[in-house]
Amino acid sequence: MEDKRLTPFADAPDTAVITCRHVTDDGAPVLYVSHDEDDGMWQFLCGGEHSEDEARIVSLRYIYELDNSLGLLKDLPCGCYAERESLSDEWSVNS
User: pLDDT tens digits, residue range 10-69?
Assistant: First the structure.
């Protein structure tokens, strides 16, 4: 039987999440994560400014496979966000 729990997140691995082309196309690290209060949507961004055309929709599995350290944020409550300065820095969680 296939294990559908491929990430530490409570959401299904095929859950759609928002990221930016800097992460998917340019290999930029995820430095900003939000768990939106209104719809529970996850956003995994590079921390820079973005235009709408730079947004990408990927699966939670895809973003987790890019950076397993994102699993540290698996319990980030809706309405909160986390940021870090670089991959080697610890996450700062805010509401």
Answer: 999 999 999 999 999 999 999 999 999 999 999 999 999 999 999 999 999 999 999 999
Q: Distance of alpha carbon 31 from its chain centroid, rounded? A: 9
Residue among 6, 16, 2 at smallest CA distance from 64: 6
Residue ranges of domains in the chain = 16-83
Looking up tokens 């870090």 gives 84
**Polymer length of the chain:** 95
User: Which two tokens mark 71?
Assistant: 């699993």
Contact, 30 vs 76, CB < 8 A? no
Cα–Cα distance measured from residue 78 to residue 36, given in angstroms and rounded to the nearest whole number: 5
DSSP strand E in the chain: where?
A: 16-20, 32-35, 42-45, 55-59, 80-83, 92-94
